[in-house]
Amino acid sequence: MKRFSNFHQCAVAARLALLMMLALVLAGCAEEFSWRQKLVLVVETPDGERRGESVGVVRWRDATGASEMGMGQLGFRGEAVVVGLSEGRYLFALIKGRQVMGQYTLLDKAMLGKSLPERAQALQVVGLKGRVPPERYPKLVTFEDITRPETVRQVDPNDLAATFGEGYALKSITLEITDEPVTMGRVEKVLGWLGPYPEPTLGKSEDIYSPIFAATVNHGDFIRRQK
Amino acid sequence: MTISKDLFLALLSLDAYNRGYGAGIDGLGGGGSKIGTATVGSDELLPDGAQAAGFYAVSYDTPYGTVISYRGTDNFTYDDVRGASDITKGWTIGAGLTGENPWGIAAQSGLTIDFYDAVVGDDEPYDLYGQKPIVTGHSLGGGLAGL
């Protein structure tokens, strides 16, 4: 019995070692590109302009040799943009879409058909700056009660007044490649309930196939933490 | 034009790669969106720590009942946003490991069960007619479905 147990353990260990070696080989084949980008929101309010900005890291990796087809693994580390408004209200620009926002904002349309490495190298230029096209705007949200995540509400970028009242309007959303440090901590100061995992949603639905808005927003839409 | 059940489940197996975090295709929509006659369930049932283990699954409401699709290998290496390596957290299940170790090796096995339990909820997974959620998946996802 003991001899069988030792053999089984050796077999498991051998298979594990083979898989680990395969992972290391594949990891060595990955071509990776990264850059920091700053997203800035400017909002007109009855009390003047308010501004919020956040610097995050975008990473593009081709670990499968498919970069010539424009495919790869895309990632983002950073926070949502938070704009402080009057009366204790806040406007947030969520993270989703941030890893591809640069190519649609800062590159010529002709570049979009190029390979992943070509597009990435074109984006790794500090100082590149442009207005985010409306179709690539981040999702904007606010909270009826900032201490209760389930009160999250979507904000129409074309009609901030409908949410915040007369005199509120989105003036601009710009993106810039930068060498500034990554922003961390601003969103957590405002949203004290953010947890350590990105998966939890802000609300629960009675029917997950007809989810409420809060159930479509995750903690990970506000923060992707640095290691 | 109708398609066969097997083909439809195969499509849902691939669809799991394109929903949620690290989606292969951006912008397909989350909970409540449609793919053919199936309605996508929201991510609110995804277990905590799923992304850290490179795990993702999605449930669908379909004419065949509830379908759970487990995502296959989409990350050979460690990516701090896309998730952990599917090799160390997923493939190692095939070596007989179960995730109950300090390094989280084969962690996707427990998350597979957790997601299934979350979708089934408090209801019995079987009814009088033997119905239970259909589980499907491509590649590693198929292996997780077979657990």
Task: Choose one word for the global shape of chain B.
Answer: globular
Helix content of chain B: 10-25%
In this structure, how is the largest beta sheet of chain B organized? Answer: 5 strands, mixed
Query: What is the structural class of chain A?
Result: alpha+beta
What is the terminal-to-terminal distance of chain B? Answer: 33 Å
User: Largest sheet of chain B, order of strands side by side?
Assistant: 1-2-3-4-5
What percentage of the residues of chain B does DSSP assign to strands (E)?
5-15%
**Largest contact between protein chains?**
A-B, 41 and 42 residues
What is the radius of gyration of chain B computed over CA atoms, rounded to a whole number of angstroms? 15 Å
H/E element string of chain B? HEEEEHHEH
Number of domains of chain A: 1
Q: Name the helix and strand elements of chain A from N-terminus to C-terminus, one letter apiece.
A: HEEEEEHHEEEHEHE
Query: What are the low-pLDDT stretches of chain B, counting only 5+ consecutive residues below 50?
Result: none
Fraction of residues in helix of chain A: 10-25%
Q: What is the strand tally of chain B?
A: 5
**Arrangement of strands in the largest sheet of chain A:** 6-9-1-2-3-10
**Distance between the terminal alpha carbons of chain A, to the nearest Å?**
45 Å
Which residues of chain A form runs of ≥5 with pLDDT under 50? none
Question: What's the shape of chain A?
Answer: globular
Radius of gyration of chain A: 22 Å
Mean pLDDT of chain B: 85
Structure report:
- The complex is a heterodimer of chains A (227) and B (147).
- Chain A has 227 residues and is an alpha+beta fold.
- Chain A contains five helices and ten strands.
- Chain A has one domain.
- In chain A, a hairpin with an 8-residue loop joins strand 7 and strand 8.
- Chain B is α+β, with helices and mostly antiparallel strands.
- The radius of gyration of chain B is 15 Å and the shape is globular.
- Chains A and B meet through helix 1 and strand 3 of A and loops of B.
